[in-house]
Structures are given as structure tokens and as C-alpha cells.
Amino acid sequence: MRTFAFACLSLLSVALPAGAQTYPSRPVTLVVPAEPGGPSDAVARLLADKLKDRLGQPVLVENRGGANGAIGAAAVARAPRDGQLVLLSVDGPITVNPALSPKLPYDPVKDLQPVAVVGDGGEVVLAVSADSPAKTVPELVEMLRKDPAHANYVSSGTGFPSHVVAELLKREAKFDAQHIPVKGAGAAMKELLSGRMSFSFPPVSVARPQAKAGKIRLLAIPSAARSPMIPDVPTFAEVGLPKVVLPGYWIATYVPAGTPKPIIDRLAGEIRGVTGSPEFGALLAGQALSPSAQTPDEIAARVRKEVDIWKTTIRALDIKAE
Fold this sequence. Notes:
Layout (H helix, E strand, L loop, with lengths): L1 H14 L12 E5 L6 H17 L3 E5 L6 H8 L7 E6 L1 H9 L11 E11 L3 E4 L7 H10 L5 E4 L5 H13 L4 E4 L3 H9 L5 E2 L3 H9 L3 E5 L28 E8 L4 H15 L2 H9 L9 H22 L5
Parallel strand pairs: 1-2, 1-3, 6-7, 6-8
Antiparallel strand pairs: 3-10, 4-10, 5-9
């Protein structure tokens, strides 16, 4: 019996890829494919702080912004398959970039393996300044149709959800408006507050405080159901535009495809242990996000599904990367 048990243990040791048994053997780096200060950056820093005790190694945060997140995502996709370099990203570089840039330096489906969702359920919302005469979606559409020369909207950047959903609204409601892209949700909100913009689609986490302060008005949300963060705001389906709907945004972690499963399972379990804590939940709630227990396989299926949705939508709207 002892000989049989020893043989089984020996086979298990051989079956585990090199390094999987002792992971992590050195500091782990979370690559955030965006500039410091964004929503994924704040989430990454708290996650890194809490993971270091659970993994027994320092966890560092490295910002690699540029090219709509493609630079950071490509760096992780090309990294060694040892779990030491981990991508922490909103879904855009994974699900939207393939539609914007067919010649990406990485394939998000083939080159990156999902690990764990860090924050889920993010939404954008149609907003106008408090001084706008439009108090409903029909009133906004009528106003924009009457004066197309002065109709405009601001987004967080070309290809961002705030851009894509605005183009979708233009198509479905049959009006025109000039797109003014800026860098990030904060800059877009400043433009909206200035009164120079007809409308925008800020994240709920950015819009809600401004709406509570009476500085902007929220008209509709492009999701299948109302957001619990802004329950009084109707969906577009409720205001007669059922096709103005897109997946919400989410933040997840990824490692290079081919990383040993024991490493993925260890990392996924430790990340879910952090994101399920009250402290992390409070941070997510402040950003209108929630924790998720999706498995790596479930996330991979979600990625494939949403890549197809964004490709279909972006191609139909003829949106291209700048």
C-alpha cells in the first residue's frame, strides 16, 4: 500500500508542470493596460495589497497604457507561462479591440487565459447637463434633430463604450451629432459639465455623484435591466429604443495561454478570496461594480460571446480605431 501511495505521489509530481508546485516563487506583477488613476488602477492596487499575504510574495502594479490597452495586453500575452505577469484589465482590450483593430499584436481568445473577474456589472448611462432643455430621451432626440449643426457628444475615446453606444443611439433614433473624443471618463465629464456638449455616456460610477449634486441629468441606460445604482433611470427599451443595448463593462485578470492549470486555479482562488471580502466589496460598490464567482472556463466563454457582439456592432456602425 505504501509503495502504491508513493507511486501515485510521484506521478502527481511529474504531472505538475515545472514551477506549479511552488507558485509564486518570486514577486507577481499586475499589468494594468491604462494610465494611473482609472477605475481598474484603483482596483488593482487594493487587490495587489491583499494578494501579497495570500500568495506569500510581493504583488506589484505596473501601468502600461497606450493603444486602447493593446500595449499592456500584448506584453502579458507574450510573457512566460509561469503566472508571474498577470493582466488586470477592463473588458475593452479583450472584447472590443478585436473589432477595432483586426491586426492586433495579440489574439485575446487564443493568447490570453482568463483567471478571475475582479469587478462586474459596470454600466454607462445617457446624461445631459443640468442646463439642457431635454428632460427625457424623446425630448433630447427632437432637440438634436432640429439643430444638427450644433449637436455633439463627448466620449472617453474612440471605440470606448461611451462612443459605441452613442453611435448606436444615433442610428436607432435617426439623428446626427459630432463625436468629440477625449482621454478618459474624467475628461469627458468635464466637457459635459461645461455645457458645450449635447450629451454623453459616462460610467454610472462617474455620473451618479454629479447627478445627485444636480449638475447633470440621467435619461436612460443601455442595458437589459435597470441598474440598482440608479434605479429611477429607465432602460432604452422602456423609452422605445430596445436595440440600444450593449454589454456592461467588467474588470478581470488574465495570464498567458498555456499557463499550467494548477497556477491558474491557485491564482483564481486567491483573487476570489480577496474580491469576496467586505473591504473589497465596498471599493467595488463605489465604482458601481460587484464581485463575481465566475470560473476561468465561464469567463473564457463570456469573452468569446462578447467579442462576437462587439464585432457585429462596431462593424455595423463602421467605427474604426484612430
